[in-house]
Design goal:
- A hairpin with a 4-residue loop joins strand 5 and strand 6.
- With about 200 residues, the chain is an alpha+beta fold.
- The protein folds into two domains: about 120 residues, no CATH class; about 80 residues, Copper binding periplasmic protein CusF (OB fold (Dihydrolipoamide Acetyltransferase, E2P), Beta Barrel), CATH 2.40.50.
- It is elongated.
- The chain starts with a helix and ends with a strand.
- Strands 3-2-1-5-6-4 form a six-stranded mixed sheet, covered by helices on one side.
- About 45% of the residues lie in helices and about 25% in strands.
Length: about 200
């Protein structure tokens, strides 16, 4: 789902730093490639496939560097043993966010309506017991079943409040939220885990 991809992308972006110049060149070439065809492709899955092809094409001139640094054979990307390319693709995508942020983010924005209807929205009412501030704001909410659950604020939230200015005042107050769950890879535990991403928050 495009919304899940965006959420995962935002989480990864907060911790990622790039070094090798050739990867920036791959990102720039990928940007130029997807920009040429982006407006012609409306289907989100087709657009994602085209982005992958653009990355592969842009990687071809740097086959020696990719083999040296990642053990990636760009001439044999489809080989199941070539898993490092998936990791590299994520890193190139992050660089594209700086090289051509307008083009890259437009890919997600154009499909947001489709994503909203296809992702499962969940609802919860409860009391906000703790506000954690790290890379993102995390709300610790105790629901009506007395279970405490963490909810992440990673993108724009629909609300009847001016959240950036007022969210600290919500501590120990009842809130009603809608959210969706996405899966990310957590390097700290070296495994996948689910995150609850807030899409709307309102007070009574």
């Amino acid at each position: 789902m495009m919304k899940n991809l965006l959420a995962a992308f935002l989480l990864l972006f907060s911790n990622f730093v790039f070094s090798q110049d050739y990867k920036k060149k791959i990102a720039k070439a990928s940007c130029d490639c997807i920009a040429k065809v982006g407006d012609e492709i409306k289907d989100s899955k087709t657009k994602e496939m085209k982005l992958g092809l653009c990355m592969i094409t842009a990687s071809m001139p740097y086959s020696k560097e990719l083999k040296r640094d990642y053990n990636i054979d760009v001439n044999n990307i489809g080989d199941e043993s070539n898993k490092p390319f998936e990791e590299l693709g994520g890193k190139i995508g992050l660089l594209m966010a700086t090289e051509c942020s307008d083009v890259f983010m437009k890919m997600f924005a154009e499909n947001s309506d489709t994503s909203n209807t296809s992702d499962s929205e969940l609802l919860l009412s409860g009391t906000l017991k703790k506000i954690e501030k790290d890379n993102f704001v995390v709300f610790h909410i105790v629901g009506e079943n007395n279970n405490l659950t963490k909810f992440y604020w990673v993108s724009s939230i629909m609300s009847n409040l001016d959240l950036p200015k007022e969210y600290n005042s919500l501590l120990n107050k009842k809130v009603n939220i809608s959210y969706y769950t996405t899966e990310i890879f957590d390097a700290k535990i070296n495994d996948y885990r689910n995150l609850n991403i807030i899409s709307s928050l309102k007070t009574d």
